[in-house]
Amino acid sequence: MARVPVVPIGKPREAIVDEATYGREQAGHQPLEARLEERRTEVQAGWGDKYVARVHEKDKLTTRERLERLKDSGSAIFEVGTFVNYGVDFDGLRSPAAGVVTAFIQVEGRWCVVIANDNTVASGAWWPKTPEKIQRAQEMARRLRLPALYLVDCSGLYLPEQRRSFAGATGAGHIFKMNSLLSAEGVPQIAGVFGDCIAGGGYMPIISDRVYMTEQAYMVIAGAALIKGAKSQHITSLDIGGPEVHVHQSGCADERVPDDVTLIGCLRREVARLPSSGAAFYRGGVESMEPAYSPAELTGLVPVDQRQAYDATEILARLCDQSLFWEVLPSVGREMICGVARVGGLYAGFVLNRQGLIDDPEATDEQRPAGILYRQGIAKISAFSRACDSDGIPLIWLQDISGFDIGAEAERHGLLAYGSNLIYTNSTNETPMFTVLLRKASGAGYYAMAGLPYDPVVQLSTPISRLSVMEGRTLAIASYNSKLDDDFEIVTTDPKEREQIEKRMAEVEARIEADMDPYVAARQMDTDEIVRLDELRDWLKVLVEMSYQGVGYRRVKNPRIWSLHDLDVLMNGGRA
Fold first, then answer.
1. Rounded to whole angstroms, what are the CA distances from 555 to 1, 390, 393, 548, 551?
2. pLDDT one-digit tens code per residue, 319-339
3. Helix axes 130-144, 174-184, angle to 10 degrees
4. Separation CA 504–CA 301 (nearest Å)
5. Interatomic CA distance for residues 172 and 450, integer angstroms
6. Are residues 296 and 423 in the same domain?
7. I want to staple 360 with a disulfide (CB 3.0 to 4.6 A). Which of 129, 139, 368, 400 is the partner?
8. Partners of 369 in beta bridges
């Protein structure tokens, strides 16, 4: 029972697709990946060189320069929410990344969530969606028990748009509730105040366990300009709430330091005082090992065209350590793959959709399309999800799904009840779950496979992801169904009416297709980040390691007593 029966999976790329097909698929991905890199560069530039120069003239670092100094040397920054507000116009102004950088970074060997106002974008002001983005990062820290580091340089709400960021349930004030929940649950919070810290920005650091201020920093309920207007007092913001006041008089901050570089060093020392990561303990001496097949090959194996199939096992073979995988319950629900592998030396559960055609267990000598949830597959992933939760194994959902089976037979089989069972399971799981939208994420299938409404800690999309209830053409047909015959042809013989219906259907289809763009989802926070396929392995290694960093706050069983072994025995008689 102690043995986790992983076996080699996958084949060399040459045995899967021919050179021409492989090259054609890579060529299809290339412009999409190039667009992703261009847009990342655009966002990271903030408001541009002019504003970077303004920051440097004040002898300060830009926010992204601070992050580079804060992280461990040689480690990467895993940014989330890069494309929040992307392309949104606020009376002629843009707010790249909603004016705040949120990311996972490694500090003194410990993964942290960093929330850093971008001081090149309206002096770090909070735009519409900025509060929600900050809260989303705080929730990631809370779920994974990761230290939350606040790099505060914030001029408060961007007031011309205050109605869209102030009052609602996830308005700016909810940030402070999240501060409180993190504190109540014992998640470390450390704040560095680098400059402006006005109004809401002033409240955010106070609940933190440690607060540092530079000599240029101040924390105030209202800045000098407002006080001058309200009380006719000529006084600077530093006089009102600088380090002299808050370190030596009010006690709202703990330490004052001369500059940005010194403050960053203090933040690193504070993190070093925290308990070290538990990941090495849970690895049990097993180090991370690269897959037998390169993740770089994924762009040649996953077709851009959503209608084309591929071998889902080959995706796993390029994500799992040594391309070793234990498939659980392999003989039922063949449209789904469930199993366990090491990622970065640590165990994780995987659920993903097969593609193409599979045998129909309900009808001999017939096949049906995969990428759809049927009764057995739903029951299988429900049981697997519950077992992973019981065993404390982080769970990775790789979606490429068209939805649930439909029709009279599906209703007789009780798919509504089976689906509800799965939704209940995923809604109540306590083990960390992470969702990746590989390609299609359609209808209730998106919900059932731990889509964002079901609280995965992080949801990633790829440049070819398509998130929707249904495809554009299908929705256009549904919208104009009363005007169509059984073959979906327009019924009317009136040329003008026919032309009008065709035009409207085309408009609906085009609008829905545009809405399915992953940047639309990222812009409105319907997904957390867009990543290239060849980046997935690195992302999963980080997410899984963060799941094991904290100790003592959730159940993590050793592999000898996993519930998964029981499922295996009951289904397969305990194969050797």
1. 19, 8, 9, 11, 9
2. 999 999 999 999 899 999 999
3. 10
4. 36
5. 27
6. yes
7. 368
8. 357
Give the number of other Cβ atoms within 10 Å of residue 188's Cβ: 22
Residue 36 lies in a domain: no
Same domain membership, residue 227 and residue 321: no
The sign of the dihedral angle between the CA atoms of 402, 405, 407, 411 is: negative
**Among 82-96, 151-165, 240-254, whose mean pLDDT is lowest?**
151-165
Whether residue 558 lies inside any domain: the answer is yes
User: Would you say 87 and 122 are in contact if contact means Cβ atoms under 8 Å apart?
Assistant: no
Mark whether 413 and 447 lie in a shared domain.
Answer: yes
**For strand 324-327 and strand 255-257, is the pairing parallel, antiparallel, or unpaired?**
unpaired
Token pair listed for 516: 């399915």
CA distance 192 to 413: 57
The two three-digit tokens of residue 115, written as one number = 């929330």
Per-residue pLDDT tens over the stretch 188-223: 999 999 988 876 666 678 899 999 999 988 888 765
- Taking alpha carbons only, the member of 324, 296, 271 closest to residue 9 is 324
Q: Are 315 and 398 in contact (CB under 8 A)?
A: yes
Whether 22 is covered by a domain: the verdict is no
On whether both 247 and 372 belong to a single domain, the answer is no
pLDDT at 155: 80
For residue 210, tell me if it sits in a domain: yes
DSSP for 132-179, written as a single string:
HHHHHHHHHHHHHTPPEEEEEEE--B-GGGGGGTSSSTTSTTHHHHHH
Q: Domain holding 336: CATH number? A: 3.90.226.10
Range with the poorest average pLDDT among 102-106, 197-201, 251-255: 197-201
Beta bridge partners of 336: 353
Quick check: 461 and 521 in contact, CB under 8 A?
A: yes
Same-domain status, 269 and 294: no
Bridge partners, 152 (sequence order): 193
How many Å apart are CA 97 and CA 71, to the nearest integer? 20
Range of the domain at 338: 286-469+518-571
> How many domains does the chain fold into?
3
Please enumerate in sequence order all residues whose Cβ is within 8 A of that of 530, keeping only pairs 6 or more positions apart, or say none. 36, 82, 83, 460, 461, 462, 463, 465, 518, 519, 522
- Bridge partners (DSSP) of residue 398 are 352, 436
Look at residues 108, 109, 104, 39 and name the one whose alpha carbon lies nearest to residue 78: 104
d(CA 413, CA 26): 41
Structural tokens at position 391: 């065993």
448 and 561 fall within a common domain: yes
Element holding 115 (H helix, E strand): strand 110-117
Exposed / middle / buried, residue 145 (Cβ in 10 Å: 0-12, 13-18, 19+)? buried
Residue 1 scores a pLDDT above 50: no
Tokens at residue 533, please?
Answer: 């396929």
Distance (Å, rounded) from C-alpha 564 to C-alpha 386?
9
- 268 and 308 in a single domain? The answer is no
For residue 362 the two structure tokens come to 């309900």
Residues 187 and 303 in one domain: no
